[in-house]
Amino acid sequence: MLKKYKKLMLYAGLLLLAVGIWSFNDDLFEISKNLDVFASLYKEVNINYVDDINTAKMIKTGADAMLDGLDPYTEFVPESEIEDYKLHYVSTQYGGIGASIFVRNKKIYISSVFEGYPAQKADIRPGDQLLKINDILLEGKNNEQVSLLLKGSKGAVIKLLVKRENENTPVEKNLTRDEIKQPNVSYYGMVDGNVGYIKLDRFLENSADEVTNALIAIKKNNPNGIILDLRSNGGGILQEAVKIVNLFVAKDVEIVSQKGKVKDKNFTYNTMNAPLAPDLPLVVLVNNHSASASEIVAGSLQDLDRAVIIGQRSYGKGLVQQAFPLPFNSLVKITIAKYYVPSGRCIQEIDYTHRKDDGSVVKVADSLIHEFKTKDGRSVYDGSGIYPDIFIPKEKFATITQALVGKLLMFDYATQYRSTHQKIADAHVFALTDADYDDFVKFLANKNYTYSTAAEKVLNSLKTEANKDKEFTSIESEYDALKAKLLSTKKNDLQLHKDEIKQVLESEIISRYYFDKGRYENSFKFDKELARAVKTMQDKAQLAAILKGDGSYKIIGKPVLAMAGKKSADKDADEQ
């Protein structure tokens, strides 16, 4: 035990030496004192605590607590989590079977399979239950434990015991693990109006190459414009974002700069190559989950007046992280700078530096938001994400639709449908018939999908408040009558919201035959933001007016200034 303590003190001493070499400042004594306190605290707990201590877990908990006071993006990654870190933040490749899983009632099920990989080739389907992996029983195991069993070296054989619904006998399948490459570009092709469409899901390794290849393929069709879909893209590698902007912007143009405390880490990133599509009209789609590198692409293209941004206000992450190696194959990812798009604005929304007394974070105050100008003089604003040039209100599904998805009843019906329908029409034309929908309603007859509508929640809140004030008795009869009326109306929800329920159900069914590509092709006919992008691309006068900041125009029947961007009634509508 003392040997372990001495070793810890040696590491602390070496760290102190490094700190001393690095900086002779007034903080040195505080650093020395607190490291000594930490080492002594660990020693006393480890020696005297009543039960054995899990050292790795304790240190990880302490490191997490220390970094938690900074921001959510500064984090310690121990050796045991390095591979997951690389998969999430760096690479899209791993050895596996090409399937995702979920836990239901302590059992493991396949949720989706990737086209062209071992699981699909072995006819493993969503809804199949995994009983064993290499003779290891899976019941009671969690997602992480099963994922570790499924992943491994490329070329290794893996044995699965699989049970399919309505089939009594499980089937043993032998698969050979392959290198799974999850693409950054999940779909590209042509949509209405001879417009090219590229869906970019993340900015990990090779994302710029994938967008380049997609753009080259699309240009063969002589498109009237390009739609770059960054909706729900959480970001990734900054340099990949710069390369993607360079596809549409001339050489030697500043795209983004990063500025922090350490001057050696301050950089300005310019385009380095001749663009592939410098003149094609360009629309970028964003939403509330478009963050980081997505906002660099959208923000720089907006600031350079190169693209029209359509959708909802983006997430508002204007921070840059860098990973630093630590002893024993661990690392720490640290926020080292803020980034600034060409107009000079930083779109970071949450102020992690100036927290409230209770430690909670706040958004950048309205009074601290500043106006900036795009290349041609349009007004844009910092501190609040990327505000779209054309704002489209976010659509929300009805409560019943959410309940049917959440209870996995649409998933279950799609599993049943796949088992009784060998094939279906092409993804872009497939549609459930009224008879199909009636069959789905019958399928739900004995299923539990209880849910509370917004009106019911308000009514229950009224009862709670009335009881607090001892006034419920006086309104009880009216309350009961209104509740009965709501329950009666609720019975019609399956018909009232039939169109949107069919839309989600069709997508789930299509994925069983045509995978993610089919989902996209089917979704195009419902996608209002995509439709607006195509319409804007076709209206050359409006496209030019938006990019020049001339006058005002209609957005979903509501007049708004083309330069809208500051916190306003439009932004409030976005957040509701």
Category by helix and strand content: alpha+beta
Task: Determine the oligomeric state from the structure.
Answer: single chain
Helix content, binned percent: 25-40%
Distance between the termini: 57 Å
Largest sheet: 6 strands, antiparallel
CATH top level assignment of the largest domain: Alpha Beta
Distinct helical segment count: 19
**Domain module count:** 5
Nearest-angstrom radius of gyration? 28 Å
State the low-pLDDT regions, or none: 12-24, 551-576
What can you tell me about this protein's structure?
- The chain has 576 residues and is α+β, with helices and mostly antiparallel strands.
- The chain folds into five domains: 2-53, no CATH class; 93-181, PDZ domain (Pdz3 Domain), CATH 2.30.42.10; 185-394, 2-enoyl-CoA Hydratase, Chain A, domain 1 (Alpha-Beta Complex); 399-451 and 497-530, no CATH class; 454-490.
- The protein is 40% helix and 21% strand.
- The protein has 19 helices and 25 strands.
- The strands form seven sheets. Strands 3, 4, 5, 6, 7 and 8 form a six-stranded antiparallel beta sheet that branches. A six-stranded mixed beta sheet has the order 10-11-12-15-16-23, sandwiched between helices.
- A hairpin with a 7-residue loop joins β7 (157-163) and β8.
- α1 (2-22) runs antiparallel to α2 (28-48) and α11 packs across α16.
- It is globular, with a radius of gyration of 28 Å.
- The N and C termini lie far apart (57 Å).
- Mean pLDDT is 88; it is low at 12-24 and 551-576.
